[in-house]
Amino acid sequence: MIATSGSGFVPKKAFFTKGVGVHRERLNSFEMALRDAGIAHLNLVRVSSILPPRCKIVPKEEGISELKPGQIVFCVMSDNATNEPGRLVSSAVGLARPRDPDQWGYISEHHSFGETEQQAGDYSEDLAATMLATVLGLEFDPDADYDERKEIYMMSGKIVESFSVVQSAKGHPDKLWTTVVAAVVFVI
Fold it and tell me: Where are the domains of the chain?
């Protein structure tokens, strides 16, 4: 089912996924990460960071079951790769959803080196929540740490939730390419 608004498609569902892949070729390691995430069979088109109003977050298995091999699918994706042994790579997508279901939310993507999953996840969640907070007109100190700002965001009653999905991995000891992906995949 395709929902249209104006001249474009508006997704009704979205799911989060993540994966890691290792191979001697960088492109193949990316493919392996997409396979691990369960989305390698799709033609992925990267889009920017808006969660449409009333877009339902569904479990990965439910979302994938509605997609066909080769289908053109829109996603917000973060990916990162290294072939340096032991180097920590992370990819994260963060989400901030407003309380008002008729308002759009934000998705952010973040990829980094040397950050733990917790650090990368918090950062991506912070990016999404801060974008949403500015659109909603919330007053906050942008220099305050994220925990303090998150409390303000949630106490405002205008942001209902924020969270992230992260994949991290250390570079393979034999200098093979290690790729990590994290994505929000839209179902139209």
Answer: 4-187
53-71 tens-digit pLDDT: 999 999 999 999 999 999 9
Q: How far is CA 20 from CA 34, 44, 55, 81, 91, in A?
A: 8, 17, 27, 10, 10
Q: At the topology level of CATH, where does 4-187 sit?
A: Pyruvoyl-Dependent Histidine Decarboxylase; Chain B (3.50.20)
pTM: 0.92
